[in-house]
């Protein structure tokens, strides 16, 4: 375990830094939800994607929006994070990303990789893809059941191989959502991924949001959480590129040990998102409620929205809950992640107090 | 999966944290004895150090315990020569002899303390008059019964920190004087490291340097040079941590590359 005094000192500095960010936010991640359509039906999907009607921006609307962002805020230090649904279902995908690339934006994407072959991988390279994160949620049978897509695992693995074969990406990552059902497969998954030439493996837990709420039996138990974090820590001690995601404050035991940074919910501080219909929100994983929509790129200038709105995200959620406000960790957790906050009852749906610390 | 500089640094960070935790463990490995009566305290204060390792658990001492504790039995087994008659010594007269080997046993029981510590050995070896042979303690600076990495750390600690109260920590620097020069220094640290690593044996060290037993060994502290702030290998003070330079990987997000970090900062390290 790393030095606790050091970690506490760093977390205190992070707390002060976060306060400064609330006053002067710094856009680093701009998510573009290109579509809500998806060719898989994952049990854990946070946004109910699938065969749904998707109101989508046109190529020209994206071009105009990105041009404005470039003029007002520049492209340096910003990353476009392309997601969906499955973004490759957009038939104008390469036109949109070609426009972003021409404007000088760095970009990466999240994909299930089932639509990627050598030809697509080469096209992605042409339009300047930098990084990609592909979802593999278990061994073959588990993955296919979980994503309710027969053959999905095989296609995804072939997609990853195409990406690696064609090269040109700065970072190829595999992301695994850990559930109560697949947690026993972590060792075998590591063995598989370790034989591949990927750059990192992100291991995250299933979050109680979206479609996942319909499957409470898949949510991790306290023992599962401890097992998962120990697994990640042990791999990192061995110098393996395994990391937890950005969600949740983990307490002194695991902070900085299972990922390269200290907990910081970046919604509205580093991160803004453009929904498929152009709505401007903070993080795509936060529950879609009308009060969280800060504007729409079709009628609002993004930079003005970013600079003058978002106040609902630039505060401590812990102030809204009596238990959280009295917690001795609230200075570091601030009420935990926005995406897992229960806004009806004003309480966190995921809190690792009494589980990890 | 690819190991990168980042992952290697992460592993090194864990390794360094584990290593730095070792001295603390070494300190904790030996708690102060709870001596419950005057007899125990007197015996401990008078003979601790001369008789090697102190007891590791608290006991209520009785006269019978004393008798049992200070009964010393020394057994020497001497191989028979291949040729010629077996050697004859004066001790043989009082020993039990078997057909294959010669066993000499001297048992001393106590009535008074002077008698308790009278031990007869069969052959003159350069051992202390009382207590366990010094060879067992050679290098065992923290007196825990083993010569291991904790002893290396104990010596390092004494050399690097002149202010350390090694008596409180139950360190015995004279067991660390491996070269018998009456000083505990960097050369002794190197010899203990070699001993722990198995590159030399206790016997080889004793043959080289002899056996010393100097209670008043001098500790030669090592002056540490001032840290070079520009040396990347020198750990930076924790206050220099800058959260703004942390790359936070968002839930959906893709890991921004290190080049992004450069983009975020101008040449003076200021955020754009």
UniProtKB/TrEMBL annotation, chain A:
UniProt xrefs under CDD domains? Radical_SAM, SPASM
Record domain Radical SAM core: where:
24-240
What's the superkingdom here? Bacteria
Would I find Protein transport among this entry's keywords? no
InterPro entries reported for this sequence:
4Fe4S-binding_SPASM_dom, Aldolase_TIM, Elp3/MiaA/NifB-like_rSAM, PqqE-like, Radical_SAM_PqqE_MftC-like, rSAM, rSAM_sf
Cofactors per UniProt?
A: [4Fe-4S] cluster
Q: Which GO MF term does the entry hold, naming one?
A: catalytic activity
**Swiss-Prot/TrEMBL keywords:** 4Fe-4S, Iron, Iron-sulfur, Metal-binding, S-adenosyl-L-methionine
**Residues forming coiled coils:** none
Q: Which NCBIfam families has this protein been placed in?
A: rSAM_more_4Fe4S (TIGR04085)
**Listed name of the protein:** Radical SAM protein with 4Fe4S-binding SPASM domain
| Organism of this sequence | Ruminococcus flavefaciens
């Amino acid at each position: 375990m790393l030095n606790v005094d050091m970690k506490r000192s760093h977390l205190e500095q992070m707390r002060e830094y976060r306060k400064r960010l609330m006053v002067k936010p710094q856009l680093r991640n701009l998510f573009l939800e290109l579509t809500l359509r998806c060719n898989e039906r994952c049990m854990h999907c946070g946004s109910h994607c699938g065969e749904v009607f998707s109101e989508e921006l046109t190529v020209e609307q994206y071009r105009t929006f990105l041009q404005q962002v470039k003029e007002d805020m520049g492209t340096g230090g910003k990353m476009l994070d392309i997601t969906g649904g499955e973004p490759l279902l957009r038939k104008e995908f390469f036109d949109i990303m070609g426009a972003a690339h021409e404007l000088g934006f760095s970009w990466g994407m999240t994909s299930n990789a089932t639509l990627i072959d050598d030809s697509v991988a080469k096209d992605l390279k042409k339009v300047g893809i930098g990084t990609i994160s592909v979802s593999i949620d278990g061994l073959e049978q588990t993955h296919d059941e979980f994503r309710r897509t027969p053959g999905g695992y095989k296609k995804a693995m072939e997609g990853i191989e195409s990406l690696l074969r064609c090269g040109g990406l700065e970072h190829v990552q595999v992301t695994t959502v850990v559930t109560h059902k697949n947690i026993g497969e972590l060792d075998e998954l590591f063995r598989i991924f370790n034989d591949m030439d990927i750059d990192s493996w992100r291991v995250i837990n299933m979050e109680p949001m979206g479609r996942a709420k319909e499957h409470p039996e898949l949510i991790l138990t306290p023992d599962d959480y401890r097992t998962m974090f120990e697994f990640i820590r042990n791999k990192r001690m061995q110098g393996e590129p395994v990391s937890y995601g950005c969600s949740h404050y983990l307490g002194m035991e695991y902070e900085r040990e299972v990922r390269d940074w200290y907990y910081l919910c970046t919604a509205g501080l580093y991160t803004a998102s453009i929904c498929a219909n152009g709505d401007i929100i903070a993080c795509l994983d936060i529950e879609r409620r009308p009060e969280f929509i800060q504007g729409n790129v079709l009628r609002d200038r993004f930079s003005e929205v970013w600079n003058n709105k978002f106040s609902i995200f630039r505060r401590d959620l812990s102030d809204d809950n009596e238990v959280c406000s009295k917690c001795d960790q609230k200075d570091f957790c601030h009420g935990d992640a926005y995406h897992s906050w229960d806004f009806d009852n004003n309480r966190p749906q995921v809190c690792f107090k009494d589980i990890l610390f | 999966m690819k190991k990168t500089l980042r992952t290697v640094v992460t592993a090194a960070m864990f390794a360094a944290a584990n290593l730095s935790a070792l001295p603390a463990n070494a300190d904790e490995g030996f708690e102060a004895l709870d001596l419950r009566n005057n007899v125990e305290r007197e015996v401990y204060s008078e003979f601790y150090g001369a008789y090697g390792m102190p007891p590791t658990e608290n006991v209520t001492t009785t006269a019978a315990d004393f008798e049992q504790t200070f009964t010393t039995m020394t057994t020497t087994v001497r191989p028979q020569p291949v040729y010629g008659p077996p050697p004859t010594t004066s001790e043989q007269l009082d020993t039990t002899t078997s057909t294959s080997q010669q066993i000499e046993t001297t048992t001393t029981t106590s009535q008074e303390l002077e008698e308790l510590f009278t031990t007869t050995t069969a052959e003159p070896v350069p051992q202390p008059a009382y207590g366990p042979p010094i060879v067992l303690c050679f290098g065992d600076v923290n007196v825990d019964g083993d010569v291991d990495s904790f002893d290396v750390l104990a010596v390092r600690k004494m050399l690097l920190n002149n202010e350390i109260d090694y008596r409180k920590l139950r360190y015995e620097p004279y067991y660390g004087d491996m070269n018998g020069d009456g000083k505990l220094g960097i050369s002794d640290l190197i010899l203990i490291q070699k001993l722990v690593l198995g590159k030399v044996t206790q016997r080889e060290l004793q043959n080289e340097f002899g056996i010393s037993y100097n209670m008043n060994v001098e500790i030669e502290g090592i002056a540490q040079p001032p840290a070079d702030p520009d040396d990347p290998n020198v750990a930076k003070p924790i206050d220099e941590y800058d959260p703004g330079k942390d790359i936070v990987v968002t839930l959906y997000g893709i890991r921004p590359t290190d080049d992004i970090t450069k983009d975020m900062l101008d040449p003076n390290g200021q955020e754009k």
